[in-house]
Design goal:
The chain is an alpha+beta fold and 235 residues long. It has 2 domains: 96 residues, Endonuclease I-creI, CATH 3.10.28; 118 residues, Endonuclease I-creI (Roll). It has 8 helices and 10 strands. A hairpin with a 2-residue loop joins strand 9 and strand 10.
Length: 235
């Protein structure tokens, strides 16, 4: 990965669930997921093109009264000056996450894919009752202000031609990809998406929509077949 590609890759992760810890001259990067292949992919990329030393911690599932923790994996690097250098591009002086001009400057399609795998999801409204009435392709941007989410909305439009709306869910502002951009969005991130996360681009159509290309329809049918075989057709 070239330097610009690494910046885009890490930018996507840091908009999402990735984080940089406290430090003075050196800081560490970490990210946690219930998808082991996602963490393995991040480690593989960092190990192949950076001097960052990293390790992965496995946490088994834990169930008890009033407590339900899924199995998870966390990647963490050793402290490195690089993360100290970019820290203030993602945090203010009070350790609150923020969106700066660094984000649209360096975010790449690979970065958008990493961001979506980290913080994005599809909701098929009505699926559990047998009839899908609506589809939602959202980014859980809960940690950001309305102004910052609007910045991300404009960035996705101007840089990648992805139209989104800003919606409120549970008191937080989130990005929702508009149906007119489903095709562009999936085409943008699919080359970088892990097979274990294909369910995040499954839209649940029974018939090919007019706007959907034959290639995307074939992909949707493939994902549906795979999800049915694994018992995860609802994503």
């Amino acid at each position: 990965m070239k330097s610009s590609e690494l910046k885009g890759f890490l930018t996507g992760l840091l908009i999402g669930d990735g984080s940089i810890d406290k430090g003075v001259t050196k800081r560490a990067f970490s990210i946690k997921s219930i998808d082991k292949s996602f963490i393995d992919k991040i480690k593989l990329e960092l190990d192949s093109c950076t001097p960052f030393k990293s390790y992965v911690k496995h946490t088994p599932a834990h169930f008890s009264a009033g407590c339900n923790h899924k199995e998870s994996w966390e990647l963490r690097t050793q402290a490195h000056p690089y993360f100290n250098k970019i820290y203030h591009k993602f945090y203010d002086d009070y350790r609150h996450r923020r969106i700066t001009k660094y984000v649209p400057k360096y975010l790449t399609p690979y970065g958008v894919a990493m961001w979506y795998m980290s913080d994005g999801y599809v909701c098929l409204v009505g699926k559990t009752k047998g009839i899908i009435k609506n589809r939602r392709v959202d980014f859980a941007t809960d940690r950001y202000s309305e102004e910052e989410v609007t910045q991300l909305q404009k960035m996705l439009l101007h840089k990648f031609n992805i139209h989104c709306s800003v919606i409120i869910r549970g008191g937080f502002h989130r990005l929702r990809v508009k149906q007119c951009s489903y095709q562009n969005f999936i085409n943008l991130i699919y080359p970088y998406l892990l097979p274990s996360m294909y369910y995040k681009i499954y839209l649940g159509y029974e018939q090919q929509p007019i706007w959907m290309s034959n290639e995307l329809w074939e992909l949707q049918c493939f994902i549906k077949s795979a999800l049915t075989q694994t018992g995860n057709a609802a994503g």
